[in-house]
Amino acid sequence: MKDEHRGHFGSKIGIILAAAGSAVGLGNIWRFPTEVGNNGGAAFILVYLAFVFLLAMPVMVCEFVVGRNTQMNTVDAFRRLAPKRPWYLVGLMGVLAGILILSFYCVVAGWTLFYGVDALVGKLPTENLEDYNASFVTDPWRPLVYVVLFLLFTHFIVSRGIDRGIERFSKLMMPLLFLIIIVLVGYSVSMPGAEKGLTFLLKPDFSKVTSKVVFSAMGQAFFSLSVGIGCLLTYASYYKKDVNLVRSAASVCMLDTMVAVLAGFIIFPAVFSVGMNPGAGPALVFVTLPQVFNSAFQGMPVLGYAFSLLFYLLLLLAALSSSISMHEIATAFIRERFNMRRRNAAIFVTCICVLLGTACSLSFGPWSGVTVGGMTIFGLFDFLTAKFMMPLGGIVMCLFVGWVMNRQTLRDELTNHGSLVVRIYGVLIFLIRYVAPLGVSIVFVNELL
Ligand code: PHE
Fold this sequence. Notes:
The chain is mainly α.
């Protein structure tokens, strides 16, 4: 870019918080508890933990290496490292996947915004939450307002650039997010009867580990860590040369896992405390939880108000710090490829997402009959990205870094030209070359069958 600098993350803590912001999102607080609830609790969590560190973390390291080494968007990065060879297609797939994920993500984020506003003005109903939820999500217009609002927030942060937009937002919001989580966990575990929820989360029953549980855990690990579509590759292209890539990846994986598990500690003790069903699925956060708030704080409406408001605020912040990272994949690519200003590239991406997001939102209402292979538009986007593009991207990136990329370049990136001692170097390379591509191939094939 001649007229604009690409930008850099200014501080090491900013780097970790921005990448953790990308990883921590609806995937942790909405999808993870849903999966845990449907897949039997503690045993699922253990399998999930194994996959985070064996499969998803190696992909994250690969993305960091390619991004930081080339300092380019996800398409040009592969073009630079493997000129005239088709590896860059994985970058293009990532750009597309980022747009598609954002388009369905903003729908759930929009619901969160709606519930947050309701919680703020004290309008969340106390009964018939199922009908309340259904009448909102199937409405053709109301959810759209929130979808567009959410995309505008995302747009605003991304168009401010890396250090003044993404980094500043993450540095401000992530600590707030952690604080809210701690407060909510404190509330939740001290509710009467919370022990049953804790047992559900902590005592594994291995008879529950079926192949479905294993595969769900693997899919969840990919989605939750934002890996396989060049999202963290793009962030790493703004890293300075002294960043310790392996340690950063480990920190992000640990923070993300911590938030997911803590989200479990917010939701399940409360759910069990009021005797509700932990396997309510995607409705857990939008139907079950408001009911939990009601019954839990019947005699103390102020606490009920604070608890629900904090919860939806938490979900909204987490969604926003993830959505900016999806947006940035395409914005960085378009800006650099077509030599555009960041602001204009971002406008372009936002417009596409408003259009596609509208389609996803309508697929809960008037367009619910529009299906492809039995899936609504929302379902199709979710399937194409989480179940197809992310695993495929992960395999390709591991194969590229493990087998194609220059060995010395790889070593230089991981050790910062020999100035760092990476104790797990050998293990890491083994994971990148063999374990991750093979493991992910298994989930990939299974998901497609
Ligand atoms: N990791 C995010 C979450 O848990 C989702 C995400 C996917 C973000 C892909 C960026 C890219 O909600």
